[in-house]
Amino acid sequence: MLPDSLQSTTQDTANTVYDVAVFVPLHTTFSYLGPANVRAGTRVRVPFGHRECTGIVLDETNAPADVTLKPFIDIPDTEPLLPADSLALGHWLSRYYHAPLGDCMELLLPALARQGTALPAPKPRLVVRLTHKGRAIAAQQLTGKKRQALVSALHSQGDIPQAELKALNISLATARSLERDELVQIQPEVQPVAAQPSANTLSLTTAQADILGHLLALPDTAEPQVLLGATGSGKTEIYIEWCRTTLQAGQQCLVLLPEIGLTPQMISRFSARLGMTVAQLHSGMSDLARLRVWQGLQDGTVRLVLGTRSAVLAPFHNLGLIIVDEEHDGSYKQHDGVRYHARDVAIWRAHQQGCPILLGSATPSLETLANAERGRYNLHTLLRRADQGEVARSLVDITRHATTTGLSNPLVERITDHLQQGQQVMLFLNRRGMAPSMVCTACGTIQQCPNCSAYVTYHQRPARLLCHHCGWSHRPPYPCESCHATTLEPLGIGTAGLEEQLRAHWPDVALWRIDRDNIKHADDWATINAEIHSGKAGILLGTQLLAKGHDYPNVTLTGIVDADSGLFSADFRSYERMAQLLTQVSGRAGRRSARAEVIVQTRLPDHPLFHQFLRTDYFTMATQLLHDRQQVGMPPFSFLATVRADHVEEEQAAQFLSDLGNTLALPLAVTGLGPMPALMSKRAGLYRQLWLLRSTERKTLHAVLEQIIAHCAQHRPPSGISWGIDVDPYEF
DNA sequence: ACTCTTACGAGT
DNA sequence: CTCGTAAGAGTA
């Protein structure tokens, strides 16, 4: 049955035909009948086969001749939820990433709007101001029960209940001393006032001021700007000042960060400097909190937002600046669903909005550097501050120095030395590769996850075998997969294992472990950071998290416990990532010290990348790597896409892809590689095969992808196959 | 993705 | 002959 809102109209006047992006993973849109003047971007509930789905109205269209159209079931909103800009973004995402339009449009909506139900109304707000002799002494927003209690207290002309005074932080004595009629003013349903940045300006160095001056003078149509600045060179000050100018011009700013862990620190820096509230958007927030920010951005009441990947998909009222911090970071790439890259989406959005965009990094991606070299992007270099000492870099060959504990003697000596001088030491452990895996002491088999082709890892507290890829877990004892003996022991060393060794070696020294098991919330960061920043001697032990963003000014020695694992990868980006990691980790140390050092433990001391690391800077390493990329014709000197197939039988997945390859006549510009097993060839019980497409022309590659989609629409893949396309892939 | 339809083998 | 699972097809 139709709801009342449509009852009167639908039967007689539902005669306008609309094209709808239904939220199903199909590469087609569907036409429906609806009342006149339903605008593009409006959500609709529609009949779809034997069920009901939600979709987004795209356009008025002509009735297709061969089908009988059905009318909308419901129109949950009176206004379009997606503005024209978002619709254009959805269309672009669908075209560029070859994802179904319905999936792309759904992605642009906050989670609470995806089900097609009416959105929760904003809570009524009541601002209470207490004034005394015309002077404001307190103000507070009240909602819910407290609001009710206060309103009825005022209406009955009685005294304000004590509880309310407590809520307002006012003592009873203070209240009694006030004259009744000037005690309370009520301003119901007040809109939050759009915050204005205060004039709390920073003093910039000459180098920072020069670059900022350049940026502020740019026309809106300028090419993307790149800020190459070593850690501690002061990129953030430039971000903040550019935002200030943009906000003062009445426009909104979007700042993208790679990790949720980095947002609290950045938020406090931005809000302190700009003297205004800064909104955030990341996966750690509730759906409702995200919806409120999303709505605030759309209506323009939220002026500045810091967020992770998905924040680039939010609607804006008048976006005036986008900043992508740590633009090289791989976590900007989405690894399931619509596999978009937030940095690339940001560049498209800036172009579409006609607003400037800044990509900042100490270690820019080779793609970005190549664009700068070609003159498509404009590169600014911010050097390390003169008052910061150089960092001495050295290698330790761990094939020549015994490492029973994972630490070589030279590293142990240096750690002791730095600790004795009252300084902090940071040990970086790349968890991948040197995995805390389980080995059977009876037969030597390294244990694999029963569902995946990955090795299981061992966690000590609580004692468990875990698969990081599918979540499988088992409590020891666990029978060896090969000989069923229960004599498994951890192989190599993980953070937990190394932690034990460190405690044994330096029992009286403070030890801070920083990894994802340990730090889940902003509060955890705050506590641990406060202690570290107090400056007392100690050891910081951590994984990737340590390499990102946070500054530890009292660290004078950084040790990379095992640098080699990153070099064994089949991935063409592994050297680039390694160069970035080495540079980022080194940058964490010695911000104030003249004699800071970095020690890298490796089995491959002759590797050219390590040689360069000892002698040159990131830019030189990256230039060399870019040259190597050109030789092998990999991105940014070619364009890649993968076709992925998952199936319970590895052979079936491979067969599907090779059949696909055989039916397509690839143009000259495009070469197909594979099918081959994915790097993680089996996950969560499914085998994954990949077919890699490489092209010298983006256009030709996209035409091939179109062909694949058309082919699969016509000849449905065998059941049990799940397949998909990944444009500009990061995982193989 | 979801749901309904059809196909075919084991069990009565 | 019926029930249960698996593969197939359509969604406006």
From TrEMBL:
Zn(2+) 1 binds at C440, C443, C480, C483. Keywords: ATP-binding, DNA replication, DNA-binding, Helicase, Hydrolase, Isomerase, Metal-binding, Nucleotide-binding, Primosome, Zinc. Zn(2+) 2 binds at C449, C452, C467, C470. Binds 2 zinc ions per subunit. Residues 216-382 form the Helicase ATP-binding domain. Its EC number is 5.6.2.4. Its cofactor is Zn(2+). GO terms for molecular function: hydrolase activity. It holds the Pfam family PriA_3primeBD. It catalyses: Couples ATP hydrolysis with the unwinding of duplex DNA by translocating in the 3'-5' direction; ATP + H2O = ADP + phosphate + H(+). InterPro entries: DEAD/DEAH_box_helicase_dom (IPR011545), Helicase_ATP-bd (IPR014001), P-loop_NTPase (IPR027417), PriA (IPR005259), PriA_3primeBD (IPR041222), PriA_3primeBD_sf (IPR042115), PriA_C (IPR041236), PriA_CRR (IPR040498). Belongs to the helicase family. PriA subfamily. Component of the replication restart primosome. Initiates the restart of stalled replication forks, which reloads the replicative helicase on sites other than the origin of replication. Recognizes and binds to abandoned replication forks and remodels them to uncover a helicase loading site. Promotes assembly of the primosome at these replication forks. This is Replication restart protein PriA.
